[in-house]
Amino acid sequence: MVVTIDKVEKSDAEWKKLLTEKQYEITTRKGTEAPGTCLFDEVHEPGIFQCVRCGTDLFRSPTKFESGMGWPSFYEPISPLNVVEQSDMSLGMVRMEVLCARCDSHLGHVFDEGPPPTGKRYCLNGVALKFSPEGKL
User: Fold this and answer.
1) Is 7 within a domain?
2) Could you tell me the pLDDT band of residue 62, with boundaries at 50, 70 and 90?
3) How far is CA 65 from CA 9, 10, 72, 101, in A?
4) Count: domains in the chain
């Protein structure tokens, strides 16, 4: 049985209407927010981090950890079906970009330098996320 995710597709004009300028720049044009500027660095309560564009559940708060890098970091997505990893050769190096599987929103990058149990560090732009506390899900 093959499981697929229904895609959310919108034009650039539609995304621009739905997102702030900063959200659009990061999620659509693959920008990066300045390190240390994300409010989610201080969020430690139970809940789920979702895609700011389409609302797809991406990461549970217990998988968030302090990496010291200046961006929210997680060691495991809610489901491997909810994120896509693809090679990114910008900036003169090879990295693995992380995208929302449902709307192709640029979320950040994943590195092989995280904590157990996965050893992964999903280093994400907080602007690409929204947080839903456990009691409001």
Assistant:
1) no
2) very high
3) 31, 33, 8, 23
4) 1
